[in-house]
Design brief:
Helices cover 34% and strands 22% of the residues. It has helices spanning 64-71, 84-93, 97-111, 128-135, 147-157, 190-200, 217-222, 241-249, 268-273, 277-300, and strands spanning 26-34, 43-50, 56-58, 118-122, 139-143, 175-181, 201-212, 237-238, 253-261, 306-313. The strands form 2 sheets. It has a 6-stranded mixed beta sheet with strand order 5-4-6-7-10-9, with helices on both faces. It has a 4-stranded antiparallel beta sheet with strand order 1-2-3-8, with no helix packed on it. A hairpin with a 5-residue loop joins strand 2 and strand 3 (56-58). Helix 3 (97-111) crosses helix 4 (128-135). The chain is globular, with a radius of gyration of 19 Å.
């Protein structure tokens, strides 16, 4: 099963300003192809970069119809259904989503001065962020269009998220916390999205946002061969810390804290080298422990793989 059919491959409009800071000083950076299946034709996308804040973005991006055809299945590159046991098995082998969800939910709760204990989880994925927020006493609303992820969410949390895009959501009440983890890079109009988030937040409420870092050492090292950030065409925006801060502050959200997070899958090296057996185990152990001081250095230098930003509504 593929994410989108040939009939949905419609490109959007040409962009003339930066999606983050709104500057007009944008220019072509590089071109990147994508290929869903061996039988599909290659499609090239042009990546532009802002000279003012360093943010990148696809120009022309996929049309909204095309992206919705992709996201109806998953935002996590799933092409078939997955079980909760399989997801938890992945987390046991490489702690990732559970760790991030606990950290971000706790940090957002500590910064939330609104007195409002309602939380909105946009792009709720497998449901770990919703669960972490509920454990802190929040009443939650979750939104996610991916049917494969939503089945896992239900098994994990006992209910289902709203199976819609954020643009379709019509809120009835304000929130003290809004979480957007690995979501903003997928959205065609981030400016409009952040404006809506700001309207949803209570005064003193917090947006906890996580995105891939366009300024990461991986992007600098691998260029368009990097896929954590430059995952075309699912990711249409590639944020820098400066660009993301500009986007949030233009809508009355003051950035209180920024974190950089570098975490490399333990089998990244053995898989790339095609190792098996004891050699693979040795390489995996090496990556597991050697990355600790390396990751700390990259994060300190602003070259981490992911950005976590916490911003309060004035």
């Amino acid at each position: 099963m593929t994410y989108a059919t040939m009939t949905t491959e419609i490109y959007g409009e040409v962009l003339h300003t930066c999606v983050a800071c709104g500057a007009e000083k944008i220019g072509f950076w590089r071109e990147k192809d994508y290929l869903y299946t061996d039988s599909a034709s290659r499609k090239a996308f042009r990546i532009y970069r802002c000279a003012c804040c360093g943010t990148g973005f696809l120009n022309q991006p996929p049309h909204r119809q095309w992206l919705q055809a992709i996201y109806q299945y998953s935002g996590q590159a799933l092409t078939q259904a997955i079980t909760l046991d399989e997801v938890m098995g992945r987390e046991a082998a490489f702690p990732n989503c559970i760790v991030d969800a606990k950290r971000m939910a706790l940090q957002a709760d500590q910064l939330n001065k609104s007195g409002n204990h309602r939380a909105l989880d946009i792009g709720s994925g497998f449901g770990f962020y919703t669960r972490a927020l509920r454990l802190l006493g929040y009443r939650t609303v979750s939104i996610n269009p991916g049917q494969y992820e939503n089945r896992v969410f239900q098994d994990l949390n006992g209910d289902e998220p709203l199976p819609i895009m954020f643009e379709q959501y019509q809120p009835e009440q304000a929130f003290g916390v809004v979480v957007m983890s690995q979501v903003l890079e997928h959205i065609l109009e981030p400016d409009r999205t952040i404006a809506k988030v700001a309207d949803l937040l209570e005064s003193g409420g917090v947006l906890a946002c996580a995105v891939p870092n366009y300024a990461s050492f991986l992007v600098k090292l691998l260029g368009t061969k990097e896929n954590a950030c430059l995952w075309v065409p699912e990711h249409v925006n590639y944020f820098t810390e400066k660009g993301l801060k500009s986007l949030l502050e233009r809508h009355g959200l003051r950035v209180l804290k920024t974190e950089q997070v570098t975490r490399i899958q333990y089998n990244a090296l053995s898989r790339r080298l095609g190792l098996t057996g004891s050699l693979a185990k040795l390489a995996d152990t090496l990556v597991k422990y050697a990355q600790i001081p390396f990751a700390a250095l990259m994060d300190t230098l602003g070259l981490g793989i992911y950005l976590n930003v916490y911003a309060v509504k004035q």
